[in-house]
Amino acid sequence: MPSDTRILIVDDHEDTLYALESALAPLGHRIGRATSGDEALKQVLRGGVGLLLLDVCMPGLGGLEVVRYMRRVEQTQHIPVILLTGFGVDHALATTAFRLGVADLLLKPVDPWSLRTKVRYLYDAHRRHLALEREVRRLRALAREHPGTPAHPASPVLPHPGAHVPTQRPQGAHAGELEKDRG
User: 163: helix, coil or strand?
Assistant: First the structure.
């Protein structure tokens, strides 16, 4: 993931933004902020966002609407999103959020240690996903440049996964001893 990629935190309350920034500061990642869904969507569409912490209820465009839009746009559909709510999690909210591909749904105030753990995991997973996509594009470009070369370099031949694997011991070995122990 490019070094200019950041975590974007979105909430309409300044004190919540400050608390989230403070909780995430030990991770050492760049952090951006937005105070509305509209502003968040603009930043996400400009690029450079590797993870989004997004409040569910905000004036104007709410968190779920932002996620719905992001999932329809190819460049933003794989950005991990953690939704935050201060009103509790009901079944309808959780169902909608997870159907949209939200990574997690957390209650405010958020436990800083738990938040850092989840953010570290999701941010790193997204960074690895992007690196794999870049590598696939690079390999496809190489394959187009050199169409006559084999796709895979010579490598040791491994047995087919369905091949018979011998058992560790002959059938029936120690069976008499097992029967004797049971009696």
Answer: coil
Q: How many C-alpha atoms does 19 have within 13 Å on its Cβ side?
A: 14
Distances from the Cα of 90 to the Cαs of 12, 22, 94, 128, in angstroms?
A: 21, 28, 6, 32
Confidence of residue 37 (pLDDT cuts 50, 70, 90): very high
What is the Cα–Cα distance from 128 to 53, expressed in whole angstroms? Answer: 19
Asked whether the predicted pLDDT for residue 1 surpasses 50, the reply is no
Q: CA 144 to CA 79: how far, in whole Å?
A: 29
**Encoding tokens for residue 98?**
């997870």
Cβ neighbour number for residue 119 with a 10 Å cutoff: 24
Q: Report the DSSP beta bridge partners of residue 45.
A: none
CA distance 57 to 52: 15
Could you tell me how far CA 167 lies from the centroid of its own chain?
A: 40
Find all residues with CB under 8 Å of 171, minimum gap 6, and list them.
none
Q: How confident is the prediction for the chain on average, in pLDDT?
A: 83
CA atoms of 23 and 114, how far apart (whole Å): 10
> What's the start-to-end Cα distance of the chain, in Å?
63
